[in-house]
Amino acid sequence: MGAACGSGCVTRWRRAEDLGLISCQICGQVVHAKGGGGEGCPRCGSALYRRRPGGYGRCWALLLSAVMMYIPANVVPVMRTTSPGSTEDNTILSGVRELFANGSWDLALLVFSASILVPAFKFVVLGLLLVSSQRGWVHLMRVRLRMYKVLEVIGYWSMLDVFVTGLLTAVVRFGVIGSVSPLPGVVFFALVVVLTMLASMSFDPRWIWDGVDDDDE
């Protein structure tokens, strides 16, 4: 892909790498660097790299850790509800079933989406982006970029899980005279949220375009 010049010729798009430019990942300063990186930033003194070393390994480690925490987060009970004459431990899925059975289908749908569907969607999309970037796939690059943007937008709603937990606690407290106490499942659930956010933040969208010629764009 190129741009037409005044004499009718076609010039290739110039990238930062072609111009010898590197952006500091700490303060954002753009500097000229002839090597592959390692020079110091003139503003903050941080090392400059075209791509952060070990970026793929870090992102994979966070993603796989989040997937591992996802299983106990949905199997181990997350809260214990105590009311006169009964005590019950609930997982996320059992809580969704109870909400449906009690007619609160809208709240059940919210809990299921925020706690089950959204994390699973993040796992799949981020995994596809990592595999396609590492293997240097040159197909559907713009589609992959849109996938990353969707992942970024969903990331803004990661705190929805906290809202859902608070809402469930309020429903139990106002519904009956009782109490709610957290169980170990809450810890795994929180780890899934944090690790998934860190994995998304560790993914460098420039990986999508690495190794791609202008003609492929």
User: What's the total number of strands?
Assistant: 9
Helix content: 40-55%
Compute the number of helices: 6
The N- and C-terminal alpha carbons lie at a distance of 6 Å
What would CATH call the class of the largest domain?
Mainly Alpha
Residue windows where pLDDT falls under 50 for at least 5 positions: 1-11
The CATH architecture category of the largest domain equals Up-down Bundle
Largest sheet: 3 strands, antiparallel
Content-based structural category: alpha+beta
Widest sheet: strand ordering: 8-7-9
Mean pLDDT: 76
Shape: elongated
Rg over C-alpha atoms, rounded to the nearest angstrom: 24 Å
Can you give me a brief rundown of this structure?
Keywords: Cell inner membrane, Cell membrane, Membrane, Transmembrane, Transmembrane helix. This protein is of the alpha+beta class and 217 residues long.
Topology record:
Layout: E1 2-4, E2 10-12, E3 21-23, E4 30-32, E5 37-40, E6 47-49, H1 55-75, E7 79-83, E8 86-90, H2 92-101, H3 105-134, H4 141-155, H5 160-175, E9 179-182, H6 185-202
Antiparallel strand pairs: 1-2, 3-4, 5-6, 7-8, 7-9
Helix pairs in contact: 1-3, 1-6, 2-3, 3-4, 3-5, 3-6
Could you please describe the fold and organization of this structure?
Keywords: Cell inner membrane, Cell membrane, Membrane, Transmembrane, Transmembrane helix. This is Paraquat-inducible protein a. With about 220 residues, the chain is an alpha+beta fold. It folds into two domains: about 1-50, no CATH class; about 55-210, Butyryl-CoA Dehydrogenase, subunit A, domain 3. About 50% of the residues lie in helices and about 15% in strands. The chain is built from six helices and nine strands; from the N terminus they run E-E-E-E-E-E-H-E-E-H-H-H-H-E-H. The chain has helices at about 55-75, 90-100, 105-135, 140-155, 160-175, 185-200, and strands at about 1-5, 10, 20-25, 30, 35-40, 45-50, 80-85, 85-90, 180. The strands form four sheets. It has a three-stranded antiparallel β-sheet. A two-stranded antiparallel sheet has the order 1-2. A hairpin with a 5-residue loop joins strand 1 (about 1-5) and strand 2 (about 10). The longest helix has 30 residues, at about 105-135. The radius of gyration is 24 Å and the shape is elongated. The termini are close together. Residues about 1-10 have low confidence and may be disordered.
